[in-house]
Amino acid sequence: MSRLIEELKTDHSALVSMLNKVKELGISSVNGHKILVQSKETLLTHLNKEDRDLYPVLRKAAENDKNLRGVIDLFAKDMEIVSKAALDFFNKYSVGRTGIEFAIDYGKFLGDLKIRMKKEEVILYLEYERINP
Question: Which of 98 and 87 is assigned the larger pLDDT?
């Protein structure tokens, strides 16, 4: 496995761990809130790493691979939705809101994020590995 893919998968695990810790500590606790803010930064750093190191390689390969181009296009459209939802979630709860609304939003956000991460790991990252053995 390439260094990049290892890093990206580690980022995924770290982000899920951080978000689980937020739930465990509670969003209204000082540490829970602090970890929530850190998890936003972790996600943004991860997305920048994908934009800088992963997607250019995939786009270059997609110039000669129609199927890969279709996959990348689908992921790009999905990423717009997921990114917006993530930023909305972080912006809403970075001010410390709590209660049932947080629990509902948290569950949806974490579920959607995990689905996206899994898709990346079993589709995009494997394509990257195929292209960059």
Answer: 87
Model confidence at 96, pLDDT cuts 50, 70, 90, reads low
Is the Cβ–Cβ distance between 96 and 33 less than 8 Å? yes
Spatial distance between the Cα atoms of 83 and 86, rounded to a whole number of angstroms: 5
- For 32, 62, 104, 110, the CA distances from 42, given in Å and listed in that order, are 15, 28, 22, 14
**SS3 of 87-121:** HHHHHHHCCCCCCHHHHHHHHHHHHHHHHHHHHHH
pLDDT above 70 (res 97): no
Report the alpha-carbon distance of residue 90 to residue 81 in Å, rounded: 14
- Cβ count near 102 (within 10 Å): 20
* CB atoms inside a 10 Å sphere around CB 96: 13
The whole-number pLDDT of residue 27 equals: 84
Whole-number pLDDT of residue 101: 87
Q: In Å, what is the CA distance from 2 to each residue of 23, 66, 130?
A: 32, 24, 11
Which two three-digit tokens encode residue 31? 């540490």
